[in-house]
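Dig into what follows:
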Amino acid sequence: MNAARNTTLEVWMAEHGYSSNSLADAVNGALQRLTGRPGGLDGSSVRAWKAGRVTWPKSATRKALEDIADLPASALGFVPRGRNPSTQAPPHQEEPDMKRRTLVGGIAAAAATAAAAPGAAGLRRIGMSDVGRLQKRFAEIIASDHRHGGQLGIEQKAAALADEALNLQNAGSATQRVRSNLYASAAAFRSSALWAAIDGRRYDDAKKHMREAQALAEMSGDQTIKFRIWSHAGTMYRHMGRPADALAANDVARNLHLTRRDPLFASLGLARQGAIHGTAQDRTSTRRAFDQAQDAMLRADPAEHRPVWMLAFYDQCELDSLALSAYLALGDHPTAEYHAHRCLSALRPHMVRSRAIATTRLAHAQLAQGAADTATATAMTVTATAATQHARVARMLQEFGAALRATAQGSSTVQTWTEHSATWKMAA
């Protein structure tokens, strides 16, 4: 006999905007909060529930699902083990519309009971529309970061928005799903504050943001934001010259279940691992990591749903940018130059900060190969804004000037560079 579909669960998922994959992620997050260990569900697990192949999930999974839905498992169409399914209404005798009315009626009754509780009168209901407004502001933070990068103002604004998301937790009642999304939004804003501090070389502030972001991400159960935070932590330690800590942090991101489900996240984790190996002067591991990152990127489905921060920056250009950084650190300047040209030729227009960084690194690679004139011409294309207001770019350009003077002392090229860099200072 074919299993009866769980149409009640399907209706509930449709009403609350869950796909099979997103519900699996939400349940995994709830399991983490309940048991201290991440769940191992994926989209196929939820599809088995909907198809009726699993009629009564394991107790911990069931409790996690009930926490998310604010409903007992039986109200979601699951049948306890040992109960004769024939005592339930046969699926063909109960139309989906009837199940929908039953489910909605149950939810309405629960809401009426809550409204009648003491102190409930006038309590604001926080919903996904509030989350949506926060997510729109997060997209604005991401766009500002790509234009300017590393600015204290971006860091402060992102931190303030994280607090705003947390304040909503205490502003009214909300479902478990909404609360998880609020924590995820707060973690996302805090991770942007973390990145701005890293990019601006304010590492003490970055560590504070990192700790706060990690705690919020755990409360949200959102694997994508956990990945972002730990991956940023790895980048922070790499910039600080601590490759062992960088690898440890990046490994936390790479070991999340998310990287096994989506090759694009696996690719980013591997590319950042390659950059760390470059800092550690490990040539073999660097090449292996970038080969694996490239392979994973080619396997990734471009149509897969991904968060805005991932879609806004990680592509072939970013992979080449990380390779450029790694091979420059290794002293393999021809390979670094190759990746620089690949990166710059395909950078999207909004990646202003990334263009300045890649251009400066290209100038370093060219100078190290003895092409002082070409390298100077390349460095002079960096905008005055990036040269004076972006901490990482400013430092790399200062290092470029010092290297140029050491290798071409007294030349007209040095004079040209000195005069041009002076115009940046006047424009600041």
